[in-house]
């Protein structure tokens, strides 16, 4: 496996070229068959994989770190924001920065000079990130690179003694999901996927309301990633080497499920009292991506390589059943001219909540509460983390403050020796929905089992702590620096 990974990285480097099969598919039957062999290899075996848990990382508290020494790999659209947030926090030392493009690494280095940081910069070499992971005085590695590099980099970093924080999704396929789980258990190193939507203020509010029984017994939840990225995906000045377009030109399913899925999984205590059993996915045809490629290719030869690809369809709808008989619906559409939505619907026996279309709403029985009642609910159920650092998070910004909250919370947990809000089992499970949905779509929306990455410990794992009874001690020690924007990707495209 290590040799395969090494060869893979030599081929791709940090350019993040898509390696999934599909470029020469002709006809729907051949397309489905080849996609199944490439992206979903051994899927039935992987979904029913039986394993004995080596060590339970759910609820695991690693030895506390008074000073968290951090290195960052990938300084494009997401990395600079994390670096900026970290530069504001007590007990953080930014030790290293890495990007394939020297100018990007240098830009971020200069942006944190005001705080006295002088990180080593690794750049100009597709293997430079390994030198960062080899650096002995680093405790935590942030990985903000193209998707297909997330797992190889995370595995290498954990094997070299580092905790890892990975941008979403954590893995591209089921084999990688299992690699993350097994490596984290073997090394006792945290592997957190940085699902920032779990730190959205309304999502946190509904999590606390669910915990306190406001909704009664929760029966059904919905989430989504509906975000028109058609223009940015086809922009030469957007994602490095068009990597995100390449992900969409040969994979067919719900490729980016975690923003809508993560928050409702926490509401339902998935992996911590309940588990996902199986899913089905159905996908529309592509009405827009190939047409866009053709129009661009008519005046620019560069885009000819993207014409007549087996593009993912506009809308994919995935339905998940849980062990306790509850259901989750997750949608994905990044090419239609829709208004942005993550849906975030909670439906219980006593009440419900719905974030989109905004403004967010809460119902008691079959009526929406009034604005005045909603304000009272916000005051009553505002979770501790929002009370503690919510106003600062709003000032710093980053998707309304949720980026800052997730970074602050991760550092505070590491500094206080506390379990993380999201563990490796969440990273693997939430990421696995993409390849599983691909398999379902390729097989006429047949159902497929969802692996239990916890090895059965979901029955006894404790729910995520939202009370902040421990920790909460990390201070914000300086004002925000000039905003680190990274490459000129339109605002919010990663989310």
Write the layout of secondary structure elements.
Elements (H helix, E strand, L loop, with lengths): L1 H11 L15 H12 L3 H5 L20 E6 L5 H8 L5 E8 L2 H10 L8 E4 L4 H7 L5 E4 L6 H10 L3 E4 L7 H14 L3 E3 L7 H11 L6 E9 L3 H4 L9 H6 L9 H10 L8 E8 L5 H9 L18 E7 L4 E7 L11 E4 L2 E4 L6 E4 L2 E2 L2 H11 L2 H13 L5 H15 L7 H19 L5 E2 L46
Parallel strand pairs: 1-2, 1-4, 2-3, 4-5, 5-6, 7-10
Antiparallel strand pairs: 7-11, 8-9, 8-15, 9-10, 11-12, 12-13, 13-14
Helix pairs in contact: 2-17, 4-16, 7-8, 8-17, 9-12, 15-16
Largest beta-sheet characterization:
9 strands, mixed
Question: What is the rounded distance between the termini?
Answer: 32 Å
* Structural class by sheet pairing and helices: alpha/beta
Quaternary form:
single chain
The averaged pLDDT comes out at 89
Uncertain stretches of 5 or more adjacent residues = 1-42, 484-495
How are the strands of the largest sheet arranged? 14-13-12-11-7-10-9-8-15
């Amino acid at each position: 496996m290590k040799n395969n990974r090494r060869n893979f990285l030599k081929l791709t480097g940090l350019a993040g070229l898509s390696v999934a099969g599909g470029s020469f598919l002709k006809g729907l039957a051949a397309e489905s068959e080849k996609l199944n062999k490439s992206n979903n290899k051994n899927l039935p075996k992987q979904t029913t994989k039986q394993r004995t848990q080596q060590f339970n990382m759910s609820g695991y508290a690693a030895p506390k770190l008074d000073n968290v020494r951090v290195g960052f790999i990938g300084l494009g659209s997401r990395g600079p924001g994390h670096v900026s947030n970290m530069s504001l926090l007590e007990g953080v030392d930014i030790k290293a920065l890495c990007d394939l493009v020297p100018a990007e690494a240098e830009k971020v280095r200069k942006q944190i000079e005001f705080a006295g940081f002088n990180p080593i910069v690794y750049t100009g070499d597709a293997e430079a990130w390994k030198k960062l992971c080899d650096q002995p005085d680093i405790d935590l590695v942030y990985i903000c690179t193209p998707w297909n590099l997330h797992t190889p980099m995370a595995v290498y970093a954990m094997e070299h003694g580092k905790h890892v924080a990975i941008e979403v999704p954590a893995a591209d396929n089921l084999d990688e999901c299992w690699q993350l789980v097994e490596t984290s258990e073997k090394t006792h190193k945290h592997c957190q996927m940085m699902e920032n939507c779990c730190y959205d203020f309304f999502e946190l509010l509904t999590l606390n309301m669910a915990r306190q029984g406001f909704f009664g017994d929760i029966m059904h939840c919905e989430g989504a990633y509906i975000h028109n990225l058609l223009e940015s995906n086809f922009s030469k000045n957007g994602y490095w080497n068009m990597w995100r377009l390449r992900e969409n030109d040969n994979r067919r399913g719900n490729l980016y499920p975690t923003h809508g899925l993560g928050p409702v999984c926490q509401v339902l205590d998935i992996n911590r009292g309940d588990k996902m059993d199986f899913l089905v996915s159905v996908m529309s045809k592509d009405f827009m991506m190939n047409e866009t490629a053709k129009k661009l290719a008519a005046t620019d030869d560069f885009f000819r390589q993207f014409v007549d690809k087996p593009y993912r369809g506009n809308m994919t709808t995935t339905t998940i059943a849980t062990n306790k008989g509850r259901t989750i619906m997750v949608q994905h559409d990044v090419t239609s001219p829709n208004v942005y939505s993550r849906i975030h619907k909670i439906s219980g026996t006593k009440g419900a909540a719905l974030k989109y279309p905004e403004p967010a709403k809460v119902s008691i029985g079959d009526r929406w509460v009034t604005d005045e009642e909603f304000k009272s609910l916000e005051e009553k159920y505002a979770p501790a983390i929002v009370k503690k650092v919510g106003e600062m998070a709003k000032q710093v910004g980053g998707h309304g403050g949720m980026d800052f909250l997730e970074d602050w919370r991760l550092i505070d947990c590491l500094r206080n020796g506390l379990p993380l809000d999201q563990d490796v089992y969440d990273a693997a499970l939430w990421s696995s929905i993409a390849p599983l949905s691909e398999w379902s779509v390729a097989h006429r929306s047949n159902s497929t089992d969802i692996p239990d990455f916890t090895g059965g410990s979901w029955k006894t794992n404790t729910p995520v702590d939202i009370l902040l009874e421990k920790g909460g001690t990390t201070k914000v020690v300086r004002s925000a620096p000039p905003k680190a924007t990274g490459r000129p990707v339109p605002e919010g495209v990663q989310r």
